[in-house]
Amino acid sequence: MSLDKNTVRNIAHLARIEVPDDELEHLACELSKIIDFVEQLSEVNTDGVPPMTSVADLSLPQREDAVKDGGYQDKVLANAPEADEGFFLVPKVVE
Amino acid sequence: MSKLTNLTIAQARDGLAKGDFSATELAQAHLGAIDKARGLNAYITETPELALAQAAASDKRRQAGNVGALEGIPLAIKDLFCTEGVRTTAASHILDGFTPPYESTVTANLKRAGAVFLGKANLDEFAMGSSNETSYYGGVENPWKRKGSDAKLVPGGSSGGSAAAVAARLALGATGTDTGGSIRQPAAFCGIVGIKPTYGRCSRWGIVAFASSLDQAGPMTRTVRDSAIMLGAMCGHDPKDSTSAPMPVPDFEKALTGDIRGLKVGIPREYRPEGLSPEIAKLWDQGIDWLKAAGATPVDISLPHTKYALATYYIVAPAEASSNLARYDGVRFGLRVPGKTLDEQYAKTRGEGFGKEVRRRILIGTYVLSAGYYDAYYAKAQKLRTLIARDFAEAFKAVDVILTPTAPSAAFAAGEKTDDPIAMYLNDVFTVPTSLAGLPGISVPAGLNAEGLPLGLQLIGRPFDEETVLKVAEVMEQAAGFTALPAGVEG
Fold first, then answer.
1. What's the confidence (pLDDT) of residue B2?
2. Is B179 exposed, middle or buried (0-12, 13-18, 19+ CB in 10 A)?
3. What is the 3-state secondary structure (H, E, C) of B295-342?
4. Which of A64, B104, B277, B302 lies in the 20 to 30 Å Cα band around B206?
5. Bridge-partner residues for B266, per DSSP?
6. Would you call B348 and A18 a contact, using CB atoms and an 8 Å cutoff?
7. How much is the pLDDT for B52?
8. Hey, are the CB atoms on A17 and B311 less than 8 Å from each other?
């Protein structure tokens, strides 16, 4: 199975990664090689095999649904490229 | 007295206890060594002031009779662990300027045990790589050299800076993380010990995430005993990580009894593929003989789905990575490349901020999770993962521990494999199955190849049975008597 330029352009869009047009061809070729490599799994019969969902064989712990932490807006915003009035700033998203 | 930088953690612990030297002197000796070995590029961020302040505080604690398990021991911290007030990069451009306002659980545990932090060790970007060449901050040089050659060799990856720092005597130990071999393979390439504990042993809280169902932290040290000491200080249940195991931490050092009589050691036939380097095969046979001589019994076993592990890994790990790395959006932290719209800002920030290997893996992950392909790739891989874990569970009904090589080769030259992702991925062929099954695995330096480079052997254990793994590893370490030193390190 090989990926063409358009597929790669589409995946890159889904992943929100800008890829220059002149890199698409090469990238399509590289990704196709990787997909070809993982394709070998199709030869294994996995009928009736449950997918692994927990590595450690532990059940997820439950806790009380209560607020026990928080209240440090300054720390949360400390690394923001742009922040103002206690908010993260982004380009305008509504007209 | 030998040089302070040549001590093991256990020796340094004894020397500090006896008052032969102070934590401050020990930290100064290491800072001096780091100064002289900057060419290796083992550290991304050095923290000499922090180290000296921590060492002085440690000396004071000792005077007050308050001594932790790693009191005054200088360590390197892989730059994937968030450290409060100290820049954390994950070796990526996209985390430019990020200084965590919190401390990861593992590093907080180490601090509580009295450790001194020398700096943040270099790694592959977001821990994605097997040679440390994908770091935005440049590759790390392996302190080992081929006999009669000055060619720069890679330290392995992704914990390459950690491995190089420990091998070159720039730290007594280091933290690493292992997703598919990132502790064990660089440990083997640099002639040191590295253990990936059972998934769930160490808290992942505050470690920059790569593939959450695989990531585990562990120690990298020069001896098995040192790994036992450091692992005990790193792990423990943490409610902040829902996959952290609510289990007591054993005294790992006590497990090093030297007595492995009657233990059954599994030798998986699938780890001897056609084309396995004769040097690696010979070393493996030697390892079997060592354990036999110590009273253990080798048992031939089969792990039939081994050949599918790498392909399974290269679906599961990129899928999880593509999801985890969605958080790098240029809004809350790190790099921002402005765009006219929010979508354009995301795409430009991520286009510029991620390196080529990280981009490749996010795209693969996005593809295998996308509509129409999920069942064919991701769901299929999760089923294969069940089969691979079952292979091990079946084998461990008959054996106590499994012995394999750590990596298919010794350290290779920089640039040798960067053009071919698949060739690079093959480095992890012997370590990935353990990761997929969540089992503990250790690499122990076992000998040198014909070119004078270190080779490692791997021991794999049952879930949460690091004690047997460490016990057998120490016996093998004693038998191997590995005393060779990398270039430029004096005994």
1. 59
2. buried
3. CCEEEEECCCCHHHHHHHHHHHHHHHHHHHHHHCCCCCCCCCCCCCCH
4. A64
5. B299, B402
6. yes
7. 98
8. no
- Do residues B456 and B481 make contact, with C-beta atoms less than 8 angstroms apart? no
- Those residues with Cβ within 8 angstroms of residue B293's Cβ, 6 or more apart along the chain or in another chain: B479
Angle at alpha carbon of residue B294, lines to B192 and B223, rounded to 5°: 20
Residues B56, B54: Cα–Cα separation, whole Å: 5
- The residue ranges of chain B whose pLDDT is under 70 are 1-2
CA B100 – CA B206 distance, rounded (Å): 9
Q: Is the pTM of this model over 0.95?
A: yes
B389: nearest Cα among B355, B350, B442, B436: B436
Q: Which residue has the higher pLDDT, A68 or B195?
A: B195
Q: Among B367, B384, B386, B419, which would you mutate to test the A interface (most chain A Cβ atoms within 10 Å of its Cβ)?
A: B367
| Assembly ipTM | 0.96
Most B-contacting residue of A52, A64, A68, A92 (CB-CB within 10 A), to test interface: A52
pLDDT of residue A1: 64
Cβ atoms B59, B23 nearer than 8 A:
yes
Q: Which two tokens stand for residue B328?
A: 């790098």
* Cα B372 from Cα B358, distance rounded (Å): 24
What is the pLDDT, as a whole number, of residue B111?
98
Q: What is the largest CA-CA distance in chain A?
A: 58
**Can you tell me the distance from the alpha carbon of B256 to that of B472, in angstroms, rounded to the nearest whole number?**
8
Of A3, A8, A52, the CB nearest to B382: A52
CB contact under 8 A, A78 and B362: no
Residues B261 and B383 sit within 8 Å (Cβ to Cβ): no
**What pLDDT is attached to residue B47?**
98
Query: Which amino acids of B are annotated catalytic?
Result: 78, 158, 182
CB contact (8 A) between residue A34 and residue B422:
yes
The minimum CA-CA distance between B200 and chain A, rounded to whole Å, is 7
Q: In degrees, to the nearest 5, what angle opens at C-alpha B72 toward C-alphas B66 and B73?
A: 135
Q: Residue B86 forms beta bridges with which residues? A: B83
Tens of pLDDT, residues B195-228: 999 999 999 999 999 999 999 999 999 999 999 9
* Per-residue confidence (pLDDT) for residue B323, from 0 to 100: 97
Helix (H) or strand (E) holding B443: strand B441-448
Q: Which three-class secondary structure state does DSSP give residue B169?
A: coil
- C-alpha B23 chain-centroid distance: 26
Structure tokens at B253: 């050092």
- For residue B94, the chain A residue with the least C-alpha distance is A81
Distance from CA of B146 to the nearest CA of A (A): 31
